[in-house]
Amino acid sequence: MAPLPEPLFTVFTASYNRAHTLPRVYKSLQAQTLRDFEWLIVDDGSTDGSEELVAGWTAEADFPIRYLRQDHGGKHKAANLGAREARGELFLPLDSDDECRPEALERFAAHWKGIPDDRRPGFSAVTALCDDQHGEIVGSRFPHDPTDSDALEIRYRYGVTGEKWGFQTTAVRREFPFPEVDGQPNVPDAIVWNRISRHYRTRFVNEVLRTYHVDGDDSITQKSRAAAIWRAPAFALRWKITLNEELGWFRYDPRGFVRAAANYARFSWDDGRGFREQGRALTSPQAKLLHAAAAPLGYVLHRRDRQAAESA
Questions:
Q1: Considering the entire predicted model, what is its pTM?
Q2: CA-to-CA distance for 28 and 229, rounded, in angstroms?
């Protein structure tokens, strides 16, 4: 049998014990008006019957479904594996508890092809808006429709906030994998997106294509101070990168950078690294000065994290 042609999209889902929400994703993909895609699921060691559920869909679906397993490596390692195994030109993450509009893939493809041929090599992504399960847009809109920019400019210069959704080219996604921090199940997405933004542009569009569900205590967005201790290495890395690589944007959001410096100190202390060790990891005099100024606030936050962990 001849091999199947490579699809335009790999829709990627990382999953762990999500048999109760995966049907939402499957129904969204069944309804897509553009059929040029595969669904790639990386399971992180589920024990809730997810594999059997997906096997049934694989037998009936009219689009390719591939199911890979890893042993509790975390979402960021699942994403790296997904990017390595993807067969599509465009890599589109879709969380295991979310859904998208029937026209989502068709609209993403149209926006991508709408970038002029001579400019497209400088782009890696198209990003759209999300709403929540109540129909409210999450965060703010982009300043223009479309806005050709990058993740850093969108955040700092334009002040765009809230959950957004989009694809990266698979080639770029492989070029910028998530750092794999020992013992950490997740690494903040911003580490990768912000690094990509220094090399490639994104087309941002004011079109709602995904519904972002918050399912109470089950949602990955629910965090506590007790959990901050456990996630400290990944969060400290995230804020260290902000101080070392993004200070050129300081004038647009000085308060945000003070918070970043305080959080860098906070999570570094949570991770057992003292003030001097924290400072040695910063690469510019400006970053070191900002860290020193914000460290007292970071220490207060660290003490609150520690107290919450001890009482949990």
A1: 0.88
A2: 36
